[in-house]
Amino acid sequence: MATAKTRKPTNISLLKGRSELVMVAIVAVIATILLVGSLNMEVLGTSVPGPDFIPLILAIVMYAIAAIYLVIVFREPEIHEDDIIRPHNFSPDMLYDLAGIEELDDTHRFPPSEFFPVPGSDDPSVGGEPRVGGPVRPGIGAVALERKAELDGVMTLEEAEASPRRIAVFSDFRSLLGSIAATLVFALALPYVGWVIGAAALFWLITYFLGSKSPVFDLAIALIFSSVIQLVFSGLLGLNLPAGFFGGF
Amino acid sequence: MDQFSLLLEGLGNALTPMNLLFVVIGAILGTAVGVLPGLGSAMAVALLLPITFSLDPTAAFIMFAGVYFGGLFGDSTAGILLNTPGQSSAIASTFEGYRMAKNGRAAVALAGAAIGAFIGGLVASIIVVSFSPFLVKMATLFGPAEYFALAIFAFVAISSVVAESAVRGLAALGIGIALSFVGIDGPSGTERFTFGVSSLFDGIDIVVITVGLLALGEVFHIASRVSAESSKQAIPQSANARMSWKDFRYALPAWIRGTLFGAPFGMIPAGGAEVPTFLAYGTEKRLAKRQNDPEFGVTGNLRGLAAPEAAGNATAGTALGTLLALGLPTSATAAVMLAAFQQYGMQPGPLLFERSGDLVWTLLASLFVALFVLLALNLFLAPMWAKLLHIPNHYLYAGITVIAMLGVYAISASIVDLLALIALGVLGFFMRRFEMPLAPLLIGVILGPLAETELRRALAVSEGSLGVLVSSPMTIVIYVFLVGAIAVSAIQRLRHHMARRKEEAAQPGELESVS
Question: What is the pTM of this model?
Answer without folding.
Answer: 0.78
